Automatic annotation (TrEMBL):
GO terms for molecular function: DNA binding. Residues 110-274 form the MmyB-like transcription regulator ligand binding domain. It comes from Amycolatopsis acidicola. It comes from the Bacteria. Transmembrane segments: none annotated. CDD domains: HTH_XRE (cd00093). InterPro entries: Cro/C1-type_HTH, Lambda_DNA-bd_dom_sf, MLTR_LBD. This is Helix-turn-helix domain-containing protein. Pfam families: HTH_31, MLTR_LBD. Coiled coil: none annotated.
Length: 295
């Protein structure tokens, strides 16, 4: 990946999203030729010269101080994820050409003690790494994410969303799922640019999915913490669940994600049906050892 180009495209796309009104600047010229702020406006807001900001926006960010990056982040109204990404990009550019220690890849599994914790939970739970591989789950988690586990390759959320046609029906808001997943991968690519498996995944998605190329070009970033997801589950129907993400101590890049529904809600009733549905599905697979996909 071209780190300087990443810096340039990120700053340009962020600048285009901020209007003069948002930062308290008067808009004298109604016929603006650029969306969002001009470079000179960002420079003024950040307290740097236009020449220096232009240099930064061209990707020459190596050596920029933390105070300058903070000022640019404030001028562009960056959120926490975007600010962290800007600092990640600056570190990556500064290290370009220097001898760098290759970062360890995300683990491909979990300790047996972690699996026991998952199995003790009474809600669906999965463990994913920074590349969006599903590396572990409890029985309810496997049942909830059954379409992802029903693949020939190891389950990967990003690969399923962008390359498996079933995803468009499984995710109630598939465009949102797409954009969020692309932004998560963009965040990780800035944080860990030497992850060869992540680079290969991004290359695969770019080559095989026009939707991914479109979403990737937005240069959006996202940190997954908590929220709501809606699925059209093939066995129990519409399910709306709250999710919470917990980073695993001592396991860089691994997170436990739990899913829960409001007690007494239709989604809670649907989740309660998962064990029986999964059991009947497993029984059917025993009768059909050929491995054909069940609906």
């Amino acid at each position: 990946m071209d780190r300087r180009k990443d810096v340039r495209d990120f700053l340009v796309t962020r600048r285009a999203q901020v209007t003069p009104e948002q930062v308290g600047l008067p808009q004298y010229d109604r016929d603006r030729r650029v969306p969002g702020l001009r470079r000179e406006e960002v420079a003024m807001l950040a307290g740097v010269s236009i020449d220096y900001y232009t240099k930064l926006e061209r990707g020459n960010i190596a050596g920029a101080s933390e105070s300058v990056l903070d000022a640019v982040a404030q001028a562009l109204l960056l959120n926490d994820a975007e600010r962290a990404h800007l600092f990640d990009l600056a570190r990556a550019v500064s290290a370009t050409g220097a001898r760098r220690r290759r970062a360890a890849g995300s683990p491909a599994g979990v300790r047996s003690s972690v699996q026991r914790v998952l199995d003790a939970m009474d809600v669906p739970a999965i463990v994913n790494n920074a590349r969006q591989d599903l590396v572990a789950a409890n029985s309810l988690g496997r049942a909830l994410y059954a379409p992802l586990f029903d693949t020939e390759r190891p389950p990967n959320i990003a690969r399923f969303i962008f390359l498996d046609p079933r995803a468009q029906d499984y995710y109630v808001d598939w465009p949102l799922a797409r954009r969020t997943t692309s932004a998560i991968l963009r965040m990780e690519a800035g944080r860990n640019p030497l992850d060869e498996k992540l680079t290969a995944l991004i290359g695969e998605l770019s080559a095989c999915s026009a939707s991914f190329k479109k979403d990737w070009a937005r240069h959006n970033v996202h940190i997954h913490r908590t929220g709501v997801k809606s699925f059209r589950h093939p066995g129990v129907g519409l399910v709306e669940v709250s999710f919470d993400v917990f980073e695993l101590p001592g396991e860089a890049g691994l997170s436990i994600v739990t899913y829960s529904a409001e007690p007494g809600s239709p989604s809670a009733d649907a989740l309660a049906l998962l064990p029986a549905w999964a059991g009947s599905r497993d029984a059917a697979s025993v009768k059909n050892p050929a491995g054909e996909r069940s609906e």
